[in-house]
Amino acid sequence: MTRASLDKQPHEVASMFDDVAERYDLTNDVLSLGQDRRWRKEVAKAVDARPAQKILDLAAGTGTSSMPFARAGAYVVPCDFSQGMLRVGKRNNAWLPYTAGDATRLPFKDDVFDAVTISFGLRNVQDTDAALREMHRVTRPGGRIVICEFSHPTWAPFRTVYTEYLMRALPPVARSVSSNPDAYVYLAESIRDWPDQPALAGRLQGAGWSKVAWRDLTGGVVALHRGFKES
């Protein structure tokens, strides 16, 4: 079994996700109490994919997050650095153009995509700022970024309860449904240590994104950040 450390060495994180690939979608559904489905619907609305648009879906895993964009008629590229995740995705939806790639060194030309999105994956990247700059590079002028990531509940009493759930309840639940429960200990720690909403917005601006804003979901358990690349 593999558990990545919080210094997020790429080979450790990729290996960890390889281990959980087979039951990843099921485990997420259980651990989020079904909320992940609602969150992904909100991502799809924010991305607002249109026919013939090119969408880059980073940390796409098995491709579950890419399906709404494909159904909207967009050309979506699911990209992930876990070969195990990509194999499971390819088995389930062989027609999608799954691409192996590191978010800090994307294998795409400049100004290619109308929108770039990443859900629950940015905090697993070793260099957040480099990834945000790379996303900016591959987005066309006028294009957009949508980030869905675990964040910090805005109501203090709920924040305390949520942190307790992450560190105490999540690992036992993961043991019952996941093929690698130790991975979810890392994921809980990475959520706890992740920057809050204003801090992430500042990093987006620092990477060149404009009109940066965010919207809290489920009381700030998750935040949806958006920005644009100036024309």
Question: In words, what does this structure look like?
Answer:
It is a single chain. This protein is an alpha/beta fold. Helix content is 44%, strand content 20%. The chain is built from 9 helices and 7 strands; from the N terminus they run H-H-H-E-H-E-H-E-E-H-E-H-H-H-E-E. The protein has helices spanning 10-20, 24-31, 35-47, 67-71, 83-92, 128-138, 156-177, 181-192, 197-206, and strands at residues 54-58, 75-80, 99-100, 113-119, 139-150, 210-217, 222-228. The protein has a 7-stranded mixed beta sheet with strand order 3-2-1-4-5-7-6, with helices on both faces. The model is unreliable at 1-6 (pLDDT under 50).
What is the global morphology?
globular
Give the strand order, joined by hyphens, for the main sheet: 3-2-1-4-5-7-6
What is the mean pLDDT? 85
Instruction: Give the helix level as a range of percent.
Output: 40-55%
Overall strand count: 7
Q: H/E order of the elements? A: HHHEHEHEEHEHHHEE
Quaternary structure type? single chain
Name the structural class. alpha/beta
Sketch the major β-sheet: 7 strands, mixed
Question: What is the CA-CA span between the terminal residues?
Answer: 46 Å
Parts with pLDDT < 50 across at least 5 consecutive residues: 1-6
CA gyration radius, whole angstroms: 17 Å
Number of helices: 9
Query: Beta fraction of the residues?
Result: 15-25%
